[in-house]
């Protein structure tokens, strides 16, 4: 046997001895069948590698000769346990199963029949089955003695077992320990005659579970159990109730424990309790903000590991050494800890599933996921082969030549030289990528000029250094220098800074010189300092934001540039520091989005969230609005987006949010009341109609939303839920729910302020109007100013069919015949009333919006023209924005290109200045000598059209 096998000469004699030992243990018929099966050279190679590569496999085959036959005949021996008859039988059956599954995994791996992910999954399934079986058995035995553990309210309790590390990620290897944490929901007592506290019950359960898995007998062990990851480690209680766990992680949890929790997964216990526990732990593991402080923790952990590697001579350790398994894990988990709070998809525990997600989201370079996957698989296969030899937990490459050749043969390589070259290559690639992702700050490119500012920041509150510091500030453009020094001193001496822990103070001391250095390069350094310091104060207690900036010099440059350009942006960042994440990628920040892009991005963000988590959905909507608004403002001040596109983008953003908010409100209402008769999720017979700036695609930063709600369902019919209400009541409550979603002030503030007063009959009218009633009101009762408002009206969310019907109705209403003299008088009278109440112009200042010849005059001119001439030229009211209506007037021959062109230019000029002032947080008022030509043009056109 094996004479024709291709293998190193040193392998064959050893292999023949191993085969002869098995042959002697097998009966004649079994031996003949196995020899027949091994005529297949592929199977012969697989058996040879397994016998040579694993003493454990060899011993299992000799103890159970029929096992080799089963492996060759079947593709999968499965996971099955017979009925358990007692404690000893439980321990015996678990060990038999463990030995059989481990030996099978060695064979499937060396044979190339199963890849590493499948092998790891089967080993993880074995661990879960063993834990669940042992825990269920021992729980029942303890209940017989003590009764069922119950909460104070009488609810039966179950212990939840968290699998940590490789078990949590279902990446268990051949000789892994299993890291576990035990927990139970609530304190209380068992309900038996020998009643004990739940704590004692579950402690005994945990002890028995560990013994069944960990103790060694004639059949070996099932899994070595490591409980050191629990709160307080070996000195802490073996099992804790949920509230105690939550308190520990909130008040004492350390960074390495966050790292461990990334892979935590319930592997046994009641599913409801398990889900509750994971929800309690989530805020500790994943921060709401982008948390670059995790990088520091990973660096410290890696530095500690490297010191241990050097001290213990573990350079050839393929797990802990440079370029090893742990570095691949650190690369992935760095992004999980940094971004997992904001990107739920990155909470994936399995590394091989996580790497493609990191690449698709742009966190690692294109192609790197595939490269790291290849490296990881080779390293894990090598780790399995090392552990398969004697069923020992080792990751050290062998030093002896014979052992090296045995390892290479087991892994299907021609020689150790070939395997070693592959390992050197993959470890080099992993090491380089690790250093790219988790490079220490000293290795990163930092502004060298920041060094000279360190002394100034360190001495800014020292009177003896004041003269020197003032000179430095003056030379670098901080004028008046005394004011700049006062700002720095005020911050340095503030009680908040004095109370900072050492780590946060260190981050501040690293950041401030960088800020001063970059600010000193701007045209107005003091202005930059004034606008950025509120942000600094707002993040002092969440100094991970400072780490984000310290770790990413480009973020600081972008921050200074944007804050210098706009106090509105500075205020938004100070109010919502989480938006700093948007500055990480300048290409994404400054790349304009289409309406479809914005809608798709929001839809994907919400798809990542549990549909039952309304609070998180509302926070996601708010963050999305804030981040998109910041991007649009950045594109505006950088010149990447012209004025008209700014308004378009802000309007598209509002539309996307309205559509998704309406969908959320609809889902909640349907859950409570059922579906209104005649409607469906695809056609809810409900639409949101935008007026004013949103209707005219002219939304500005901070604009309210003027909206009206319409429906066309049968108001007399009702919903089909357990709680039935009539359709009109349903739609009214739907609108109220939508307004609640938009206006509720969460930690992130409201989404939008909503104004519904433009609905038929205003505040005295129904909140939701049928489209028939809307038409009747507009024809019979609406004022001229309401028809003017209709010019800038369009549907923005809801039923596609109803939106189309409303567009047709709007055209019919605007194209009605009107008496020109009466229309002219009413438009002029309304304009005069508005000017009397709202115009802030005087002999020194001009109000861009309400002043004579200003924005509102142009809007009234456009609205008058639309209402007066739409009957004969319907095309002029196809659009709702002033610019395109004016262009339509040219196309219809109702206004000369020169006349309309002047109005368009004036309108754009006014709005551009208005936007600029808004970003500077200044009122829309300019000096009276501004825009004189534009104002004259508008007033001339007003006289020509309206007298």
Automatic annotation (TrEMBL):
UniProt key word Nucleotide-binding: yes
GO biological process: regulation of glutamine family amino acid metabolic process
Location of region: Adenylyl removase: 1-442
Molecular functions (GO terms): [glutamate-ammonia-ligase] adenylyltransferase activity; [glutamine synthetase]-adenylyl-L-tyrosine phosphorylase activity; ATP binding; ligase activity; magnesium ion binding
Catalysed reaction, written as an equation: [glutamine synthetase]-O(4)-(5'-adenylyl)-L-tyrosine + phosphate = [glutamine synthetase]-L-tyrosine + ADP; [glutamine synthetase]-L-tyrosine + ATP = [glutamine synthetase]-O(4)-(5'-adenylyl)-L-tyrosine + diphosphate
Cofactor field: Mg(2+)
Keywords: ATP-binding, Ligase, Magnesium, Multifunctional enzyme, Nucleotide-binding, Nucleotidyltransferase, Transferase
GO cellular component term, pick one: cytosol
Enzyme class: transferase
Entry keyword annotation includes Nucleotidyltransferase: yes
Region feature Adenylyl transferase, mapped onto this chain: 450-947
Domain PII-uridylyltransferase/Glutamine-synthetase adenylyltransferase: 299-436, 832-921
Family label: Belongs to the GlnE family.
Protein name: Bifunctional glutamine synthetase adenylyltransferase/adenylyl-removing enzyme
Organism: Microbulbifer okhotskensis
Name of the gene encoding the protein in the UniProt record: glnE
